[in-house]
Hints:
3-stranded antiparallel sheet; alpha+beta; HU Protein, Chain A; elongated; 3 helices; 92 residues; 29% strand
Amino acid sequence: MNKSELIVAVSKKAEISKKDAEKAVCALLDIIVDEVSNGQDIRIVGFGTFESRERKERTGVNPRTNEKITISASKIPAFKAGKAFKDAVANK
Length: 92
């Protein structure tokens, strides 16, 4: 499912217009991106947690030259599924 299909599904499920569903979906995604990029976690009970994680500096290998390179530390977005979400997927 892509973003436009999600908007249509939200529109049908919530019985609202596609325009209102698009506003809601875009607002939700913007809030998640803004909060996680600012170091805040978003916890939705039963669904999961959106968070940022620290990656330590590490050594990698350039596949073309087999030369060792240093990959600098970084922050990455992460999602951890909640129990209800995991159970729903496992039972399908």
